[in-house]
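Methods — Computational structure assignment.
A single polypeptide chain was analysed. Its primary sequence is given first, followed by the predicted tertiary structure written as structure tokens.
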Amino acid sequence: VMLLAPGLPVILKMLVAAAFAMAGTAVFLGILRRVPLRSEFIVPLIGLMLGGVIEAGTNFVAYRYDLLQSLNAYMIGDFSAILRGRYELLWISFGLTCVAYVAADRFTVAGLGQDFTTNLGLDYRKVMALGMVIVSLVTATVVVTCGVIPFLGLVVPNIVRLVIGDHLRRTLPWVALLGAALVIACDIVARLVIAPYEIPIGTIMGVIGSCLFLYFLLRRRGYGE
């Protein structure tokens, strides 16, 4: 969009981002079907590797057309540019979260596998398609509004799951509350570290999130040994 239609309205940028997010998710799921998953942590690691490949290609195109600075504005989460008229799209995320909560039981069942879901009379493909649409639209909305906030969706659900369990209807409110609290804490740190200047929240979240992810990974490996 920055290359071909830079003047596109924010809502249309969000729709384009959502379309590419769904396409990327479809590629990700296709890869998972062909890879033996010996550990649940293989899934996010594959996602990180796929994201790295896509990011490398994106950076190459941006470098060729002198758009690296504009690209970084979206790739590094930053709240300093969120003003009236730029955050209202987040209400879309709230609405989609409500839809996910209503369908939470179906997503929980789908997480147990296609055969189990089909035996209970649910259409596995439709449930997965609904989940892809919700995740893609929410991700696109957040990225267009404030940029990428790394590791947030990877670390917070795992923390809640370890404490409460895997039932999505029970965990979703806690994921939302803990995620919001962690983002606020990172934002406060970002504003205080080198005050009166502000570090992008994506940088702070990247440091904290990567440390937490490594802790969970090593902790699980230690239990396995």
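Note: The chain has ten helices and no strands.
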